[in-house]
Structures are given as structure tokens and as C-alpha cells.
Amino acid sequence: MIEKRINELIQIIHQASYEYYVLDNPTITDQEYDDFYKELLSLEEKYPQFKREDTPTQRVGGEVLDKFNKVTHEFPMLSFDDIFNEDEIAAFDERIRKVIQNPTYTVEPKMDGLSGSLLYKNGILIRAATRGDGVVGEDITANVKTIKSVPLHLKEDIDIEVRGEIYMSKSSFEQANLEREKKGENLFANPRNAAAGSVRQLDSKIAASRNLDFMAYFLPNPEDYGIQTQSESLEYLRKLGFVTNHKLNTVAHSVEEIVSVIDTLANKRKNLPYEIDGVVLKVNNLEDEKKLGFTSRVPRWGIAYKFPAEEVLTTLKEIKFTVGRTGKITPNAIFSPVHVAGSLITKATLHNEDYCLDKDIRLGDVISIRKAGDVIPEVVEVKLERRKEDTLPFKMITACPMCGAELIKKDANHYCPNDHCPARHIESLIHFVSRNAMDIEGFGERIIEDFYNMGYIKTFVDFYHLDKYKEELMELEGFGAKSILNLLDSIESSKQNSLERLLFALGIRYVGKKNAKILAEHYQTMDAFLAAHYEELVAIDNIGEMIAQSVVAYKNDIKNIEQINQLKALGLCMTYKGSKLVVDEAFQNKTFVLTGTLEQMTREEASLEIEKRGGKVTGSVTGKTSVVLVGKDPGSKYEKAKNLGIVIWNETEFLEKLNN
Ligand code: IVH
Fold it and tell me: What is the pTM of this model?
């Protein structure tokens, strides 16, 4: 009886959510909903044995994690290239037309949040993950379960992965910032940051309180559901119980039609309840998509058009000089806070002396500021006609604002020549822990500065000795035991980072994120990288003379080599873990399923090896599976593979193929 009533209540509540969020047509009142919800909650409290995995009462959150687990995406989570004008749309269309006759595109509003992957088994949400680097993301299931527009139980009991945008509506954003203001906390710059910060809360109750939303827009393996077009994917998603942008998603057959849809959306943008930052164009026919395929980074069958940057006027209050990790001095414009493209901003780089003199920028000037998407804010122009009297021309400083050393000028830039300038050290430490470098969570700029000044961290190596001061650090004012433990944990896990992160983190001049990846992919190990000569480096695609020279200069400094050796001795990973595509016919374009326990490697490692060779790894055996790799104690997948007559490899065969 009780169980039956619980089942009934769950059914009523799920249906009510579906009607509210998907159909936009509720058939019960809020009061009725609340009553059903309370009844369910009290029954679950009294009879926990009947509490179901898909119960809507989980939406309030409660689970508190100490860290997010990493998850490897079954299908890499890619994004599109960005374009910014009609010419680029025409060029995209032309590229498509070289391969496809009369293409049709879906034109979908580009939701401004963060992409998420939701995994359902038998129709029940079992895992949600962030995109991460596209291959490995973070498990945010507990937080995503609190999002009311995410169905916890689909309308069909199927296994499926769904992708979409996790976002914060404009009204929830305002509400969240109002609350933060009341508590004296820093405000979120924009709804996207707010959404990203909220899904990364370890306490799911906090995530629940942020009122996030989810809009579904993509199926990574639509063929498995008999779907032939992206439009059908969107329809199917809605049928399953997802919110899609069904009123605004359209199809177009020409550049003119695309541009007209963009114009309409640009006009509607201000009145939409959420932020959009452009439109996403996708070739509608999935067979056509297949023909177009991928470049080494992105799909060829889609593109993201971004709305033009918005410009806003403000007043220049101060020019503040900062010292970068190479000693470069940068003047920064500090102005009255303004909202640009959904972000609240207060400063923008003025690059160097010449830039300031060219613009003739002066304190008190009215300036226009622009920010396009993720791009850093810039000063577009000085409104000379609004300049007040008695303003003074810009004057470059002559001494380092941090250490007082006399600046030297090289080309257009000024540098602090002092190798021991604290600002340079602090900047390089901040860079080391940053998201694209070692990604050590919990280190804000302020903490690095404090730890530097207190003598805990002077070099990269010191991060990995910080655990010796655990007790001492826990006593520091402003740091709870928990935050120190999290910090140490995050430092420890950074040891596992793939080589490109370390190469980027070391701060070798001109070795940015992209070049670090190219070098890591090319050399695979730190030792091979360190052994490389100039000629070898310049011969690598995309590595120019300037980069090669800088790498050589870096390696010639014995202090740098000693530092790397110390990091190695501390257990930092010195190899590239990403996928280097090596064409291998045994793997290329084949679909693999793994079952059972492997002895020589983990399943994750095996998947990586398969992907490196151009194969794909999926979760379930279907007619499309090419090979099933069987370890010890295999599950039902093995039986199914045998029944379907699919090629089966044991671990030895697999290793042989790998070594071929
Ligand atoms: S499809 C292979 N559809 O914009 C790419 N993305 O580069 C599959 N986005 O990272 C993504 N709205 O976070 C797709 N209707 C939409 C989207 C959308 C927003 C985001 C997404 C992605 C980026 C596109």
C-alpha cells in the first residue's frame, strides 16, 4: 500500500514537472504540488526502504562531497569554432556546400552557460558531468539532480546520453546576487559564471539554492535511436521529457535565412528570460554530418556565431601598473563598474606605453569599453569631445611599482629587470596553479600572495612540500581545516596531470596552452622534450623560431632543469596522457566495448589506447560494435557479443594489437 502510494506520488510529481517545464502548461496548482511533495517526503522519512532512486525529493540536495570525481566521456565533448559576422557564415556555408548539396541547418539560440552531459540508465538519471577538457570532465551528479528542469526519470526507460546547457536565468542571477550583496560576498560577474560556480559546489544544497536550469540540445549517438536529423534529435529530447528551445530553434536553407533568424533573435535577446550569446548552426541531416566529419579539433558540420560585442561608456578613474611573471609592466585602466555583455567589469588592459599614447588616454576621460564573449575587456576609444579641461597626458612610470627597480624598455614594452622582484614570483606562482596550468583548486591570488609573504611558497616545488605544514596552516586565520585539506588534496591530485599542463605551468616564454599541448603531444615525455634541439623544435608544425629559441633558452638554464628534476622526484607525472592519433587499422573507425577486469591496465587506460589509435569506446554492445574486449569475469556484454557474432579479443590479443 505504502509503496504503491509512493510510486503514485512520484508519478504525479514527475508529470507535474513535465507539464510545468516542458509543456509550459501546468494542470495542478502550486498548492497541490506542495501537498503531494510533502506527503511523499513524510512517507519516505517513515519508510526509507521504499525511497526510490528517481525520487523528486532529492532536488533539495543534501549530499556533500570532498571533491569531484573525474569521469571520462564515452564520446568526446567537443565544441564548435566561433565566427562573428555574415562573411564568416557565408564561408561556412560554402565549405559545407562543397561536400553537401542543398544543406539544411538547424539554427539554435546559443545558450550562455556551460555544457553538461547527462547519462540515463533504464530512463533514470545516473550521472551528470561537466565538459572538462572534452575527454575528462567532473562528476556533478548530486548538483545536477537539484535542477528542476532536469528529468530524473525519462518518459522511456532507455539508456541514453544527453547533452545540453546548464544555465542560470536572468532572474535567478539577480536573486543570487541580491543575496550575495546582503551577505557582503563578491557578486557574480554574469549568469554564466554564476552557473559554473554553482555546479561546482561540493555542497549540493548550495547548488540547489541557486536555481539552475537545463536546456537539452544534442545527442552524441542519435543513430542508436533511429534518428536521422538534428531536428529529430531535438523533438525526441522533448518527447523524453527534456526542456528544449522548441519555440526558438528553427531550420534554414541559405545564408539569407540564417541571417534573418539571427536578426530576429538579436531583437528578442533582451526580453528572453536567459542570456544567449549567439546562435549555433548545425547541418541538420546526420548522414551529411557524418560525411563532413571533424577537423583535428572541432566538428566540420557546425559552428557557433557570436553576437557582436556590446560597447558601454564609463569614466577612467585610475591607471594601475602591474608586473607580470616575465617582469613586463602593464598599465591597466580602472574605471567605474559597468555591465558589458552580461558581465560587471571594472578594469581593462592598456597593454603598454604606446597604446596609451596612441589613444591619448587621460584620467577622468569618458571611455568606451567592449567585451566579446570570453575575450578580455578592452578600451575601444576615448571620447575626446567629452574630455574635461586641465587633464594631463599619460606618463609611463620609470620604476617597478613592486620593488622600485628602474625599468628597462624592450621594443614597445617596459620590464622590471629584477629577477627577485616579488611581483614576478607571485605572478608565476599564480600562473602555475591556474585552471589551464596545474589546475590546483582553492588557490586564489590572495592566498598565493599570503603564502608567499609568509614564506610557505616561494617556488613551484614548495607547493608539493606544503603538506609538511598542514597543522600550522590549519591554525591560520581565515583557513578552516577543511579548506586546507581540500587544498592539499588538490595539490596532490595535480601530480597526475598530463605533461602539457606542466609544460604550460612552468611559464616558459611563448609556450602558451596551445604550444604546450603541441610539444607534449610531440615529445610524449619530459625527458624527450628536454633532449630536443633547436632544429628539431622548429621543425614541428606551429612551433616557430621565437618559441624554439625561448624553449632552448629555458632548457639551458640549469636552475630550470633542477626544478624539473625536483618536481619529478616529488612524483609529478612527466608524460603525456592525451590521445595522439596514430593510424592503426586494427582500431581505426572501430567501435569497442570493454567488459570484465583487465590485468595489465585499467579500463580507462585501455580506452585511451583505443582512442589514440582512432577507435571509439562505447558502453553497450549493439549491432554496430566492432570488437568486444573481454577481461576477467566478464558481464552480460560478453554473452551478447557472442550471440551477435561480434569479434572478441582477450587481453593478450589486445596487447599484441597495441604493440603491432
Ligand atoms: S551543440 C559539438 N547547441 O556553445 C558541439 N551547443 O561551441 C555540440 N551551446 O560548448 C554543442 N547552446 O556549451 C550546442 N543549442 C546549442 C548550444 C550550444 C549553447 C554552447 C555549448 C558549446 C558551445 C558551442
Answer: 0.61
